[in-house]
Amino acid sequence: MVAPRSSVANASICHPRRDGFAKAIVERGFRVAEGTANFLLLFVGPDATRLCDFVGKRGVLVRDRSSVPALRGMIRVTVGTEQENRAFVDCLDAFRQKQALIFDLDGTLVDTTRSFDATVLELVYELTGSPVEPGDLSALRGEGGYNDDWEASQELARRRGVEVQLERVAERGKKLYLTRARNVETQLQSSETLRRLAKRYRLFVLTGRSRDEYQPVWADRLDPLFERVYCHDDLPGLRKKPAPDMLEEILRRHQCLGGFYVGDMVDDVVAAKGAGLMTIAITGTVAREKLEILEPDIIVDDGHSVADVFGV
């Protein structure tokens, strides 16, 4: 059957519009399924429903397909007029402006097993004369409340019968750490992955490191990839993780309505939940079962899998 002339005309117009529409969406960091239909399937990931709600409140109708097993994390948007397509793209831009993707640093963005972890083991042995196994440090972190490596070192020393002032622990620990960190720490999330994510979210870092531990080791490499990197002493007067105070302050300062916090510690999950953020927990630093108890929104066993969560 030959299609009516008007349908043929509409189809010929639709394909150029479809291609231009898809290109605008891809430029904003989303993966678009290939096809020739008059709609697009976008992979959004874990906040597909939130995005649908956001654009719906602005008068743009899309279909949330994220609950369909074969289409998990996807939404469907019809190719419309130029004005309608522009309205949806404007919604993507507005959504990005209000969504924060915040990363912890150690064990999340950066592998610190040969720097901070090794420093803690050496430091506690130096202070107490008793050897410390990596499993001892992992078990302590799994208890929660020991996100700060110098506080963890102090507690490990205490459990070996040695009381040491935190200031002394931190002073010696920083010296040991800085002698090795630059040469052994590696980046877990690739710069290209972070650049792609930055098209969809406003990227920040909140780390328990002090500024003098971060600046000489990672500032030149990570600062250009994030809107802002916050060390704990950049936010004086606020409680550290597991309290949500610092995450809440970042959201307030940058006028973000929500987003994600990606971390590898018990304290990270607790803080994110307290701040109303979706939580992505990376196993390794802490045993998976310890994190599962806290019921984060997503658990991944490899830091590199964060890119897969968002489909970038």
Structural notes for this entry:
This protein is α/β, with parallel strands linked by helices. The chain folds into three domains: 5-95, Alpha-Beta Complex (Aspartate Aminotransferase, domain 1); 99-110 and 188-310, Rossmann fold, CATH 3.40.50; 116-184, no CATH class. The chain is built from 13 helices and twelve strands. The chain has helices spanning 5-26, 48-56, 82-97, 116-128, 134-143, 149-158, 166-184, 191-198, 211-222, 245-253, 266-274, 288-292, 306-310; strands at residues 31-32, 39-43, 63-64, 74-78, 99-103, 110-111, 186-187, 202-207, 228-231, 258-263, 278-282, 298-300. The strands form three sheets. A six-stranded parallel beta sheet has the order 9-8-5-10-11-12, sandwiched between helices. A four-stranded antiparallel beta sheet has the order 1-2-4-3. Helix 4 packs parallel to helix 6 (149-158) and helix 4 packs across helix 7. The protein is elongated. The two termini are 42 Å apart. Mean pLDDT is 91; it is low at 1-13.
What are the salient characteristics of this protein?
6-stranded parallel beta sheet, Aspartate Aminotransferase, domain 1, Rossmann fold, 13 helices, 4-stranded antiparallel beta sheet, elongated, alpha/beta, 3 domains
